[in-house]
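User: My notes are a mess, but here's the protein and pyridoxal-5'-phosphate's SMILES. Can you give me a structure?
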Amino acid sequence: MNVSLPYPTEAAHWEDESHLPGHEEIFVASATGSWLTTADGRRLLDAASGHSCVNLGYANAELIEAAAQSYRTLAYCSPEHRNRPVTELAATLNALLGGGYRIRYGATGGGANELAVEIARRYWRHRGLPAKRKILALDRAYHGSTGAASFASGPGILQSPHVDRSAEFLHIAGARDTGAGTSRDLATLRQGIEAQIAAAGADTIAAIIVEPVAFAGGVIVPPRGFLAMVAELARAHGILLIVDEVITGFGRSGRWFGFQHEESVRPDIVTMGKGITSAYFPLSATAVSTAIYETFLTPGNAMNKVITMAGHPVGCDMALTVIAIMQRDGLVERVRSNERAQLSRLLTLHGLPHLREVRGLGHMWGLEFDAAEQAVEVAARCLAADVLVLRADNLIRINPPLTATDDEIGLLVDTLTAAVRGACAA
Ligand SMILES: Cc1ncc(COP(=O)(O)O)c(C=O)c1O
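Assistant: No problem, the inputs look usable. Here's the predicted complex:
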């Protein structure tokens, strides 16, 4: 449909700097499956699933049909009323999490984390401990770009140095210093958290927020037992554990949720977004344990918060369809087999000059180089071969759709391998 305007049009969209090598601009005209088509007709394999969210690929006919049906049935519903998709999705998410949670919706991953922080602080206020407000987070975490979610994000991770920060958010060293190229083991990580708790005082800390794998921060896969260790320390010190599953949720790590790699871990709060609808609708969710939820049921403590678009019935229907497709097609298992059969081939690159480390889990893989220069070169070589990978600083990250075919995953691994060999030999 053409819009007719009274004045000549001028460029008006706020353009951000491109992260592509050489800052090429890509104008995407359409997309199908794992492939983008640019305005000039080029086809690019999208190894980033959009922004780590198009889990089921583009132009998925079942999702489009489910959306159309849902719009015809109930195009919107006030958050003050009940409706089938919101209640059914809440019950489904709770079951996937292992039970014992209540779900509150939002529209963005950052919003889900902001809500988690607010709930954690209000929970302690309900319990007569209003001083428990501080939030511990990891130095290379990314939790979103709005309010509390941006404060929780590590300084400098996908952020300008000019954004506001808050003294109530304290950052602890995570499993990898991607600048220095050094890793921290479980004992060192534990000492870091204990030292921060001791310095701030557990009576001032509301929660600790962690990602099972810090994807934006450099695909930092913590040592096995990390989440269980954080959960144990949190419980011992009366601190809530918030697990941010905005990227790792919905199969990307090879489990429904990343925290489920460690059987004993039961987070107090779990946040989700992105792949929940495979990006076909902006929807997020914050799951809170029933014990926390119940404190909001006591007189005077009701949440009393409305977000007009949160829990949109069409978004919830899309999420239900995504989950049903994932179950029917065994996509979580498929991620695990892709990891074993194809993506782990990237590990054979270890030892090349300038390539410091290859690491990953499920569909999330990262390559860390000595300098940004090599990462830029690798991304450029991939792009020249029509494969779009993510590059930031000295890191390359990939995160292909869960529905990518064997051939597409093979093409991605082969292209990346050739690009790294070329760039590291140069
Ligand atoms: C782990 C994590 N949490 C939260 C967010 C923020 O999600 P959104 O961009 O939908 O606000 C992101 C986005 O990349 C993320 O990776």
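The CA atoms of residues 270 and 281 lie 20 Å apart.
User: Great, I'll file this with my notes.
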